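USER:
Class, as today's exercise, take the chain set out below, and explain how the chain folds.
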Amino acid sequence: MWHESQHQRLRLLGLRYAPSQPTTDVAVENFLKEALTRKYPEYGFWGEESGQSANQTNRWIVDPIDGTHSFSRGQYFWAISAR
């Protein structure tokens, strides 16, 4: 069952829940890549879905939906991971 609090988490990012996890994974990663690149242009980006950007000395490492199995089942055990 998908819980309202999970909808709220995605709405904070301007996203909506999609039953197809890969679609949501890509949307979250694209959102984070754009936001982080705009705020920190000196850093590269490595995303689980899209791979690496040019600057690999300093970079963000992102797993847009960490816990995809739980996410796809509407459970609470998932997170957005960025380091």
